[in-house]
Design goal:
Elements: H1 16-26, E1 73-78, E2 83-90, E3 109-112, E4 122-128, E5 131-132, E6 135-136, E7 150-155, E8 160-172, H2 178-182, E9 188-200, E10 204-218
Parallel strand pairs: 2-3, 4-9
Antiparallel strand pairs: 1-2, 1-7, 3-4, 5-6, 7-8, 8-10, 9-10
Length: 219
């Protein structure tokens, strides 16, 4: 599949243009070796690939949570979809594009280590495969998440950043709203991303499931 034409240096200090490559290639695995029909769950409000529209509504204001300092990520846990997985740092490949977690390990997520750390002020991003040739992978059920579900990120400093989901959407890969998904909202936020939408053996998945979440607690 083709690469996105964004590069980190083209958009200042933000790495998120390059991270869009993850959505275009690395996560778009084909279900060649497994019968997963009808495929992974899709967000209830977006069973087909979504179009550009207003950002999901943020949760009602609650107690102010002090953001955490920078620290690498160790694990991601999402009880509502039975995820408890190690997270590896991913970097740029020799061509300047974001790497993805090795697809051979179905229970593994990735975090771009030169971006925002979960819990830190800004928008952090965790990615993972929806499936591999053997069957479902770590974020196979991501599309079934609902508002109010929580994502817990355990960091290398033994702190846990707890995020509450306020939106789950599907976007076409050829019209992915990078600025909207990765942009700084002035809050400590998290995006969890995998493949979704329709699937063909010729082209793989035509979209990406994106979970929007905001920091609501630390411990």
């Amino acid at each position: 599949m083709g690469r996105d034409n964004w590069h980190p240096e083209r958009i200042g200090h933000s790495p998120w243009g390059a991270l869009a490559l993850v959505m275009l290639t690395g996560l778009a695995l084909m279900r060649n070796g497994a019968d997963l029909s009808p495929g992974p769950p899709q967000p209830v409000a977006a069973t087909s690939v979504g179009h550009q529209k207003a950002a999901p509504s943020a949760p009602a204001p609650g107690p102010v949570v002090k953001p955490l300092a920078y620290a690498p990520v160790d694990r991601v846990a999402i009880r509502s979809i039975q995820v408890d997985a190690p997270v590896i740092d991913v970097n740029l490949d020799p061509d300047g594009w974001i790497e993805t977690p090795p697809p051979q390990d179905p229970n593994l997520a990735g975090w771009y280590q030169n971006g925002i750390a979960p819990g830190q002020l800004g928008t952090s991003v965790v990615v993972g495969h929806v499936d591999n040739e053997a069957g479902p992978a770590v974020f196979y059920s991501l599309g079934s998440m609902k508002k109010g579900n929580r994502v817990e990120i355990t960091r290398s400093d033994d702190r846990v950043a707890v995020f509450e989901v306020y939106g789950v959407e599907v976007f076409a890969k050829n019209d992915f709203p990078g600025a909207r998904v990765y942009g700084d909202t002035g809050k400590a936020e998290l995006r969890v991303i995998t493949c979704g939408g329709g699937f063909t053996k010729a082209n793989g998945y035509d979209g990406n499931v994106v979970v929007f979440a905001r920091l609501v607690a630390t411990r």
